[in-house]
Amino acid sequence: MPRIAIQTVRSAIPAIVTILVLFGSASSVHAGDLRQIPARQQSETNFSSYDLTVELIPERSEIAGTMTVDWINTTDESQASLYFRLFPNADYHGNGGTDVLAAAADRASVEPIEGDDPTLLEIPLPEPLAVNDRTVIELAFQTVIPEPTGASFGVFGGSIDQGWTLADWYPIVAGWEEGSGWYLAPPTRFADPTFGDAATYRVSFTAPGDLHVVSSGHEMSATPRLQAGTTLHEIESGPGRDFTLSLFPKTSFTDIETAEEAVDDVIIRASLPGSIAVPGLTDAIVEIASDAFPLYESWLGAYEQPELDLTIANLSGATGVAWNGIIWLDLADIAADGALSEEEVAQLRFVITHEVGHQWIAGIIGSNNNDHGFMSEGLTNTLAILVLRDRLGESGAEDYLRGWVAGPYAALVRDGRDAIADEPVTNDSNIVLRSSAIYGKAALGFEAIRQEIGDPAFFAALSAYAADYRFAVSDPADLLHAFEAAAERELSSLWSFWFEESTTTIDDVDAVLNGFAD
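Request: output the structure for the sequence above.
Response:
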């Protein structure tokens, strides 16, 4: 895994030093902790990097600290500003929020520009940044973590009693799409708003010593500190599109049960609080994830992180959610009766197989999930079925295809309704129709393409697509081109029918289902 060596020097930014002094009684972050990178010189890798020094203040449900972003301009034009997303400021996060207290660009203090959208912050650069050049942004910030609201699947929130699930908790550079520019649309409470470029991460995270920490990437060290019984966690991650944390208070959950398995050089680990870890559950999670992992890697390329963690979260509207290097599972119902049934293992098999696939689609192989959710959810559902075909045989996989993937969408079509799969999510979206379209209809569309061109061309297309857009950002035309190039024929009519139109009948659905095992 590529890592960037970053020198530690003193900060030359008075505004940030002042802010850090204000943190004094609540945080162990000091001016000397700022890591400074010489501005505007060639990076050691092709990835931007985030370097965070932060501390959790549990009694205030707050994270405070500093971050340095060594950003490489991989866009296709010069940039006069850099845009950061502050997703905790979305109104659906209740009392949550992120404040940027001071900012600097290339060692010069700058005044951030706020607009009507509180989740967006513009950082003007001292001079326009050319393509392939770099800039160093330093921020002091604090994030208030809300009580769980159920928005964004419930992956940002928590409390001192129950612990915290933390996605999108720090300022992150907005995503860029070639031909469209910065993606600056306001987030919705539906699904996952995160869309950004791949980057490496170094995180120095101080938290109470009685917290169990699960994170993206790999923990390099955990050092107890004399200060109020805290522990300093040094974590490295990347390349990936975000950095996430799960924090469990050991006093609430009594203990943490872990199981792990090595798949080649990657550790797949499940960590469950003892109150959730009914007999056999932790081992079953690791076994299912380890079973799926090598197939995805053979189809879509190397994973490149040293580990993949699976743990719990109190999710809303989902049983599983995947972020960079971490999969969250809502296991409360499974654990409720203290036993793990065969039906529950079958449920976990599909959910985990799907979420493991997201480490590649759209983790490693990027796309804008807000505008083109069918590319990530539909394709991952199709690939999950093909993993299960390999592991369970055609009959077992077909059961999942008909029940888990096609079932809700088929019911919609029988009721005389349809939806366009390739549509952006908005606050006005009918989320039931959209979910049926991007998870069900789109999966049938990709399965229809597989049946049309055959397995050799289908997997050759995926391999080429994965290589071309590895840690980059793709759009629907890129994926269509990969299938057409591998099949050596035009597929735009088939593509348009499944993804861009709303004229599907139950006969069309049945034709794909009946063709699965042919």
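The first strand starts at residue 48 and ends at 57.
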